[in-house]
Amino acid sequence: MNIVSVSRRTDIPAFYADWFMRRVREGYVRYLNPYGGQEHRVSLLPEDVHAFVFWSKNYGPLMKYIPELEERGYDFYFHFTITGLPKTFENLVMPVDNAVATFRTLSERYGPKRVQWRFDPIVISSATGPNFYARRFEEIASRLQGATERCYLSFACMYSKVRRNLETLAVNHNITCRDASDSDKTSLTLRIRETADRYGITLYSCCDEALTANGVRQAQCVDGELLYELFP
What we know:
Blueprint: E1 2-6, H1 12-15, H2 17-26, E2 28-32, E3 39-43, E4 49-56, H3 60-63, H4 66-71, E5 76-81, H5 96-110, E6 115-122, H6 130-144, E7 150-155, H7 160-173, H8 182-198, E8 202-205, E9 217-218, H9 224-230
Parallel strand pairs: 1-4, 4-5, 5-6, 6-7, 7-8, 8-9
Antiparallel strand pairs: 2-3
């Protein structure tokens, strides 16, 4: 059976929910390997799918389809990214108030284990320093208390493509970004962990082993142990 990630390449729930449901009804999806161009076909028949793992910053367009997914016999859980970054960084992301309301609706329907909060990536910049993220995390965590048990945390990796994309902030908004230093990571992670503990949320990281030294648990973003616990 397949575990189907929907999707880390783009925000399918936010921008392609109608397309996704057409593929579900057809019973398969095709995709191209980005490195070799080979075409792959994946069955989406209920008997071939162990679970969908959804990723999004806006589940609004998918909400109307979730009852149909249940009726068809699919299991699923959600990664929901809410960071509260300024519009200059994310001009297509729903406001925090709307995101929190949608998050809580999903949690009330499916339980806090099936809705994972993502507070990532943390981009240190002249407009969003450590204090900005500490305040934002406190604000959002207080509103998600009881609605989730996990929060995934990570800092932006400044690959060349990321740097090129962030250069537009400098040109258009006079905002400069930089790599998070070790001291940035340590001090901010400790502040965030203290806040998370206060609201009953456990911090995880799936791509930064250095954070585990600051009390963050190591996990996989598509977590086999969690999938087994949810859908044995």
